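INFO batch 0412 | record 1 of 1 | parsing
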Amino acid sequence: MRHSNVSKAGKIVCQEMIPACSDDTVKKLRDLHPERSLNLNLENLPTPESLNSFWDAEEGTGVRNKIFSVTKVRKYFRTFQALGVTDIDGWRGREHVLYLFTNNDTEIHQLITDELIFPYVMREFLPLFLPELAGVPLFAFLKKDGGLRPLLCVTIWRRCTARLTSDCTRDEAHAYFTTTHPNFMQCASDL
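INFO prediction complete | emitting tokens
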């Protein structure tokens, strides 16, 4: 097994750890991850209209069919690591979704891709569900030495989107993030 940040996180989740619930937990987390300005330079970020026109055009459709093809989505869910503990019936989260991909029902697989995976690319979420879909829960556990171990738990749909996207842009993304953000490796939850 490859020892990446995701596999380390899976080992941590599956261990018996004590949740960090003291009065100073939030302060310790803020010290680990200092806040910075959220006033981002959005000049080069595409507008929703230009994003939609790109994906609707022939070039965008080709890119989408290449990166988010039913074949690649199926392969991802058939091969991705099962992280986390089993539910009360003995199933892992991966197995619930994997069951949907055990047949060759291209129609349902395309629907899953269009409605549950691709919205992460398009930033298309109903405002009511935005915190749940676009955010991630953060859990804090105590280390043996008394320090904190923050752990992000992302959804399987978001992980699939991130994985398929990063497979396509891995080299460029690695160069950008590791040279731009000094704390990237510690905070990279699903890239």
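INFO post-check: The longest helix spans residues 156-180.
INFO record closed
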